[in-house]
Amino acid sequence: MESLNLTTKILVYGYEESTEDIKKLIDEAKSATKGAYAPYSGFHVGAAIMLANGKIVTGNNQENAAYPSGLCAERVAIFSANSQYPDIAITTIAIAALHNGSFTDSPCCPCGGCRQTMVEIENRFDSPLRIVMYGEEKIYEVESIKTLLPLSFSEKSLSE
User: Fold this and answer.
1) Rg of the chain over all Cα atoms, to the nearest angstrom
2) What is the pLDDT of residue 81?
3) Is 105 within the bounds of a domain?
4) What's the mean per-residue pLDDT of the chain?
5) Catalytic positions, written as ranges
6) 5 belongs to a structural domain
7) pTM of structure
8) Three-state DSSP class for residue 37
């Protein structure tokens, strides 16, 4: 029998410790929460993506009474970026959530479906995708989505 030991490195810091680029991306994600359509959960999520060409693309969650027909903010932003800039890599994504009129104290982390979509982006562009998860009390940052989803399903999985 063999054992796999997986290690996750997550940077934890406050907003004021962020670089100006990260602050700008967080601010864009927070602003994007305002356009979320979340009448059922009341949980408004915004995502802001930095592309390799410096462009920022945002998205927000879009709910639907026929769950799970809605879509998460992260995937809305990723799909929007891919449709507008299909050959430009995504370098960073920031995520923020607003609930009951306030931003969450704890960082908003991507769901499994969004993580799998982010893995596809990393693999497609052969470049790490940094994830910044905002919370009022602290921010989590990882250098690659593979940190959050180390045993992911990929194109290689289809050929084995």
Assistant:
1) 16
2) 97
3) yes
4) 95
5) 74
6) no
7) 0.94
8) strand
